[in-house]
Write a structure and sequence with these properties.
Strand order of the largest sheet: 3-2-1-4-5-7-6
Helix content: 25-40%
CATH topology: Rossmann fold
Strand content: 15-25%
CATH class: Alpha Beta
CATH architecture: 3-Layer(aba) Sandwich
CATH superfamily: Vaccinia Virus protein VP39
Number of helices: 10
Bound molecules: S-adenosylmethionine
Largest sheet: 7 strands, mixed
Order of helices and strands: HHHHEHEHEEHEHHEEH
Number of domains: 1
Shape: globular
Length: 237
């Protein structure tokens, strides 16, 4: 079984070449760049918005996000691999983005800031067994009307098995094994968000799942207040 340590090691090894290697998808005829832009556009971001990117890698989604939120917004990128974050940091420095915060963390252990306007994740949830819990936390962290958008891979039902195994062979250096395809994050989005949308492309290899956060229930508000030190729940004396 592939562990988080293995995944981190694989990405650490490939960090410098990552941006170049994703171009290989073009050779397979996959227009990944167009879907990246589409995914960010689905977040419907406004100037000044706060966005969390889960598993931000080298920051390939950053330029489009920054274009939308401007210098008054905030982008928090979370990733488990320090080498990937180093590349993302160099990119942010080169572009003079001072409102990008990069956090080295497993997304399963990440504490979301409250009332974010958007959460995005591209190509990550297949590595994270705790994806359901992360998606639930994202749904609670979003301001009402805020969006979570996931763009990722799934087992393409309409592909012949040999083609899928060819793809697996190409993606293996990045820790993509059959286990990646056991996760079904879009089901978690359907479970934890009041309004959702699901789209597939390339015979089902790629999916885009969107959740729109609703107004929290009274129970959720009480639970959130109990977690704030400002409003400690009084202990019986
Ligand atoms: C395929 S890359 C995607 C990077 C970026 N989102 C993109 O679209 O180019 C997967 C990224 O997920 C990160 N990752 C994998 N498991 C993670 C976890 N449990 N917590 C945080 N990041 C993780 C890896 O370090 C890597 O940077």
């Amino acid at each position: 079984m592939i562990t988080k340590k293995d995944i981190r090691k694989a990405y650490q090894r490939h960090a410098d070449k990552y941006d170049l290697s994703v171009q290989l998808y073009r050779l397979l005829g996959l227009r990944i760049e167009a879907y990246r832009s589409y995914t960010v556009d689905l977040l419907s971001l406004q100037k000044g918005d706060w966005v969390v990117e889960l598993g931000c890698g080298t920051g390939l989604n950053f330029p489009r996000i920054m274009e939308k939120i401007g210098p008054g917004g905030r982008l928090i990128g979370v990733d488990i691999t320090p080498g990937m974050l180093d590349v993302a940091r160099a990119k942010a420095d080169r572009c003079g983005w001072q409102n990008v915060e990069l956090i080295e963390s497993d997304i399963a252990a990440f504490h979301f800031p409250p009332k974010v306007n958007g959460v995005i994740s591209t190509g990550v949830f297949g590595y994270v067994p705790e994806y359901d819990c992360v998606i639930e936390k994202a749904s609670r962290a979003l301001a009402p009307g805020g969006l979570l958008v996931i763009f990722d891979l799934k087992r393409p039902e309409r592909w012949p098995s040999w083609l899928f195994h060819l793809y697996l062979g190409l993606a293996q250096p990045f820790g993509v094994t059959p286990a990646y395809f056991h996760h079904k994050p879009w089901k978690s989005v359907e479970r934890h968000f009041p309004a959702t949308r699901f789209e597939e492309r390339y015979g089902g290899l790629i999916y885009i799942s969107t959740g729109i956060a609703g107004i929290p229930t009274a129970g959720e508000i009480i639970e959130e207040m109990a977690n704030l030190e400002m409003f400690p729940v009084p202990s019986p004396s």
